[in-house]
Structures are given as C-alpha cells and as structure tokens.
Amino acid sequence: MTGSHSIGKQMHIHSIAFVAADTKIAQDAMYRLKHRYGHVSPETADVIVALGGDGFMLETLHRYMGRKVPIYGMNRGTVGFLMNEFREMDLPERIAEAQTVQLHPLQMEAHTMQGESMCALAINEVSLLRETRQAAKLRIKIDGVERLAELVCDGALVCTPAGSTAYNLSAHGPILPMGSGLMALTPISPFRPRRWRGALLPHGAEVVFDVQDPQKRPVSAVADYTEVRDVSRVIIREDSNMKIKLLFDPEHNLEERILKEQFVE
C-alpha cells in the first residue's frame, strides 16, 4: 500500500512554499522561515513545508493532493507524528536529504437511504459511526465474500498504515508499518461478536459495509473530513492512482515512529 525510499541528492530544491496552522507558534515560525529562505505560492513550489501539528498536515495533504508535490512537515503542534523536528537552520539541505514516503489514500463510496451517493478520499481512515443511541448493525463483505453477517457496534473503520496510529489506535486497532501492504479493519466498541477485534486486509481489498435496519439504526460515514449521514452502504478501496509524497528526515522517519509507537507503555 505504501513504500519509502531515500531521495537523497536527487531532489533539487529551487522553490519552497510555507503554509502554517493558525496558531501563533506556527505563524511566527512561518514568518521567520519566509524571511530566511524566501517563499513562492504552493501552486508553483517544488516542495511545500507545512508548519503545525498532525491535523494541519492532514489538511495540507488534502488541499494539495492534486499537485502531487512533496510535503515536508515541521512540528509546531502537539504530537506531530507526521512531522519532522522544527529547526530553522539548513532547511534546504534537510529537504534534499529527506526520505520520501508514498501514500495511497482510501476512496469512500457512500450510498444513502435517499438514493444519493458521494465519493471522498481519506488519508487516515474511513469510519462508520452510529448516529443515535441505537447500536449500529453492519454486514461486512471483503472482495464480494460475506465475512461477518452482523456486527453490532458503535461503528467500524478501515485505515491506512499512516492512519493506524490515529483513530484506529484509540479504538484498539493494530499499528501498521509503512510498506506493509495492509489495511486495518477495526470495530469501534463491538457488542456482538463480543470477542471480534478486527482484521488485517491486503491493500488491494474492497471492503463493503451494508447497514442493517438503517431507519431504526442510522449510521454516518466519515472519510477524514467528509461526512455522509444516513448511509445504507459504504464501499472502501485504495485509490492506487492517487500518490501522496511525505518527506522525513532520515534519522526520524515515519517507519521508525510507527515501530517505536508499538513499544510505548
């Protein structure tokens, strides 16, 4: 599903665009970096430098997904799982030596009870969530084969390796190494089957959720930021044609972060 490799000196940086979260610490950092290195529009830059936290990085990846330009994040937020350490000095050299991680987002195709359909992309996960006090009832098919006739739960999600440390982790799902070629299917507060904890799926799998009794037990579907209410069926598959490039310092790359996260007490 994803892979990483060192681009080293092969990357020649001619122009940098800086984007930042609305926080003072991120805006101050952007002001100083623009003054030091210059700045061009994100629409014409060779590389985009995102200043903020993981949430802002996710926004940036979505905003410039169509450009296919590499994005290098520096942490001016809290956790910063997708970000590099913030340092003002030697930024062009750091970018030139960075490793690239290529991501393929998930495509959500959501069908509603009203007969409408909507497609959206998710870099982290696609999640289904109950809308009322009634638990959701979901039927799950993988590549056309019914694997679970009825999952009674608060919801369920399918995540990428990059998203496996986000909502998936809080739902007790597995952390997936980059380049694993896997997606995680994780239930959210499952009631029946009580002991089912989810599944690991090949990145090329197609996952279909059918909502049982959607009138009585309405469910919403969310692809990162895009929410569709009152869904009856949700189809999830990897969009292999869409490529997203993240840049990481060699000593602090995403694969190492994912590995370290699995040993946190």
Give the gist of this structure.
This protein has 265 residues and is α+β, with helices and mostly antiparallel strands. The chain has five helices and 18 strands.
What topology emerges from the helices and strands here?
Blueprint (H helix, E strand, L loop, with lengths): L2 E4 L9 E5 L3 H14 L9 E6 L1 H10 L7 E5 L15 H7 L1 E5 L2 E7 L4 E6 L2 E6 L5 E7 L2 E9 L1 E5 L7 H4 L11 E7 L10 E4 L4 E5 L7 E5 L2 E3 L2 E8 L5 E5 L5 H8 L4
Parallel strand pairs: 2-3, 3-4, 4-18
Antiparallel strand pairs: 1-5, 5-18, 6-7, 6-17, 8-11, 8-15, 9-10, 9-14, 11-12, 12-13, 14-17, 15-16
Overall description:
The protein has 265 residues and is of the alpha+beta class. The chain has two domains: 3-103 and 243-261, Rossmann fold (3-Layer(aba) Sandwich); 106-238, Probable inorganic polyphosphate/atp-NAD kinase, domain 2 (Tumour Suppressor Smad4). It is built from five helices and 18 strands. The protein has helices at 24-37, 54-63, 91-97, 167-170, 254-261; strands at 3-6, 16-20, 47-52, 71-75, 99-103, 106-112, 117-122, 125-130, 136-142, 145-153, 155-159, 182-188, 199-202, 207-211, 219-223, 226-228, 231-238, 244-248. The chain has a six-stranded mixed β-sheet with strand order 1-5-18-4-3-2, with helices on both faces. A six-stranded antiparallel β-sheet has the order 7-6-17-14-9-10, with no helix packed on it. The longest helix is centred in the N-terminal third of the chain and has 14 residues, at 24-37. Mean pLDDT is 90; it is low at 1-9. This is NAD kinase. GO terms for molecular function: NAD+ kinase activity. Keywords: ATP-binding, Cytoplasm, Kinase, NAD, NADP, Nucleotide-binding, Transferase. It catalyses: NAD(+) + ATP = ADP + NADP(+) + H(+). Belongs to the NAD kinase family.
